[in-house]
Amino acid sequence: MKVIQRRALSNALLLLGSVAWSLLRPVAWLVRRREDLVAFYGRDGGRFLDNCKHLFCGGSAETLPGIRTVYIAHSDELVELIAGYGREAVRKGTLAELLLWLRAGTIVVDSVDWTDGFRFAASQGARIVQLWHGIPLKHVQLARVRGRARRRFGLEWAYQLYLRASGRLRPVSWLLSTSPFVTEHAFSRSFLYEAVSHAGYPRNDAFFDGSPLRMLNVDQRAASLVAAQRQRGGSVGVYAPTFRDSLADPFAKGELDLEGLSAAAMAVGTLLLVKLHPWMHGHLRSTDHHGLVFVAPDSDIYPLLCHADFLVTDYSSIFFDYLMLDRPVIFFPYDLDRYLRQERDMYFEYGEFTPGEKVFDLDGLEAAMRKAIMDPSYGAGERDRIRRTVFSHASGSAAERLYRELFPRASNSSDVGTGQ
After folding, report:
1. What is the 3 state secondary structure string of the chain?
2. What does the pLDDT look like over 163-200, one tens digit per residue?
3. Which end of the chain is more exposed for a tag (fewer CB within 10 A), N or C?
4. CATH class of 8-205+396-411
């Protein structure tokens, strides 16, 4: 109940703030925008991760001549770190950020954070490129709102009014998708957009390009432990569950036994990276259990994901990305019935669209991990079927393809896509 009350208060403040900041909109239309200036605003308030990070990594001055790219960072430390790689960033919440929103001809985002505060008003007249942060298995944005309104209140019009007032119903100029199938069956039901690209996700470029900038905001302790495990000839797995509406992690709620998960990892001789969703409370980062490594929740898991022999998840979109590596995926939806009933509807039938073994307890998980380690080809046919469906390009170079669509003149004269 407290979580619901906090969320309701947050939404009310967001609505009031959006109305107040609307006074900035006329100013935004008067300021002349620069077509050669591109601003990047990552999810969770400017964190250096996900699609925004990796598209930024692929667009330096050398690879996009004549185009200036600037990242809006959540901290002064991140601004300095990005500058250390010869790239430009400004601190979130500063005058420099406001001026960037007013002047940038193109603004790249991968969440709905850009509609908060002054940003929606200041972005009037800019070309908005929405990358989003994953192929959605579960309902997001408009599809989620419509389903929630029908199921709980029958007041879809009220939600639509809120979204319009807060700016979340504004059509974006470009929407990034991964295939026509995903666009038709998921994104077309969830976003308003003027044009769509099927270039694929820049974050998956990290599987094929290990340039130094991509390693920024990667959990270095986890990376070192993975390297040591590899030197010993051991296997590595990743457990990445998505969040629930309560925002509590499964260990804090008692739904999963931490000692039992540790025992399962030890039994099969694997190092299991546990990457909880950043929104989960009780991250357990300092907890030390044999066989388990808790990865910093706000860090970027993608440069590490390519070193994993298998992935364990539940309803997270991360499994779609992992299909590019053609390695086993284990689905651990221990609360499947409750999740579908109380939390989210889905675009696709869960059993049909999740190419991997389904387990519902730790004994089943241990057996599935052992099978994945011993036979990496297990389930390859089903993985290939889904991969071909959701990806038009099952390889790297997504940033290069997207930049060529967005900036054909600049990208035609250079090789786009490698970071620094």
Report:
1. CHHHHHHHHHHHHHHHHHHHHHHHHHHHHHCCCEEEEEEEECHHHHCCCHHHHHHHHCCCCCCCCCCEEEEEECCHHHHHHHHCCCCEEEECCCHHHHHHHHHEEEEEECCCHHHCCCHHHHCCCCEEEECCCCCCCECCHHHHHHHHHHHHHCCHHHHHHHHHHHCCCCCEEEEECCCHHHHHHCHHHCCCEEEEECCCCHHHHHHCCCCHHHHCCCCHHHHHHHHHHHHCCCEEEEECCCCCCCCECCCCCCCCCHHHHHHHHHHHCEEEEECCCCCCECCCCCCCECCEEECCCCCCCHHHHCCCCEEEECCCCHHHHHHHHCCCEEECCCCHHHHHHHHCCECCCHHHHCCCEECCCHHHHHHHHHHHHHCCCCCHHHHHHHHHHHCCCCCCCHHHHHHHHHCHHHHCCCCCCCCC
2. 666 556 779 999 999 999 999 999 998 889 999 999 99
3. N
4. alpha beta
Percentage, residues of the chain above pLDDT 70: 81
CATH topology of domain 217-390: Rossmann fold (3.40.50)
- Please tell me whether the overall predicted TM-score, pTM, comes out greater than 0.85 for this model: yes
* pLDDT tens sequence across 21-52: 666 777 777 789 999 999 999 998 999 999 99
Domain limits, the chain: 8-205+396-411, 217-390
